[in-house]
């Protein structure tokens, strides 16, 4: 079974909740799913990753949540090259923060792209000003993502 790894960056658990809600959607699509809520670079590159999904909220002023900072630092420092990695990205944010809206998700997206990884489809940006429960947007997005990118394997 192909492996989908979900990497979570969260302060208050919203992004982790999204990851957990998405697990059965990907299992039904034929994936083995692993969720990393204290991710390290080794979780991504130390074992095969057929598909990756990043669920990342923003804190501070466009900053990455602390639990995913080590991952981002290792990615920058080690610059492993991620050619062949396909990923999706769900950013949680709040547009009342203005210019830093979904800043962490955008930052991580740029880092992954710099390493040669290929994002499939558009990034989903969930705005807490408009959507109370991020799952309400993330679930249909994931279903559509699987469909449009032809990711179903079972
Ligand atoms: C102290 C603090 C700072 C925040 N800074 C930003 C920000 O700069 N940009 C943004 O889009 N959202 C910002 N947010 C909003 C969170 O990203 C948003 O509420 C998100 O849904 C939280 O998800 P989580 O439960 O996974 O941490 C901030 C929230 C808090 C509490």
UniProtKB/TrEMBL annotation:
GO annotation, cellular component aspect: cytosol
UniProt KW keywords: Electron transport, Flavoprotein, FMN, Transport
Superkingdom assignment: Bacteria
GO molecular function, one term: FMN binding
Cofactors that this protein relies on: FMN
Span of domain Flavodoxin-like: 4-146
InterPro entries for the chain: Flavdoxin-like, Flavodoxin/NO_synth, Flavoprotein-like_sf
SUPFAM superfamilies: Flavoproteins (SSF52218)
PANTHER family: NADPH OXIDOREDUCTASE A (PTHR19384:SF128), NITRIC OXIDE SYNTHASE-RELATED (PTHR19384)
Protein name listed in UniProt: Flavodoxin
């Amino acid at each position: 079974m192909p492996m989908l790894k979900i990497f979570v960056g969260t302060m208050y658990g919203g992004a982790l909740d999204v990851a957990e809600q998405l697990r059965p959607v990907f299992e039904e699509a034929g994936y083995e799913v692993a969720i990393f809520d204290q991710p390290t670079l080794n979780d991504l590159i130390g074992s095969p990753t057929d598909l990756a999904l990043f669920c990342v909220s923003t804190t501070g002023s466009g900053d990455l949540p602390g639990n995913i900072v080590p991952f981002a630092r290792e990615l920058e420092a080690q610059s492993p090259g991620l050619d062949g990695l396909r990923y999706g990205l769900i950013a949680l944010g709040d547009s009342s923060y203005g210019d830093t809206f979904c800043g962490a998700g955008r930052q991580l997206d740029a880092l992954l792209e710099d390493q040669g990884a290929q994002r499939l489809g558009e990034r989903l940006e969930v705005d807490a000003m408009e959507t109370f429960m991020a799952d309400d947007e993330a679930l249909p997005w994931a279903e559509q993502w699987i469909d449009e990118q032809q990711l179903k394997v079972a």
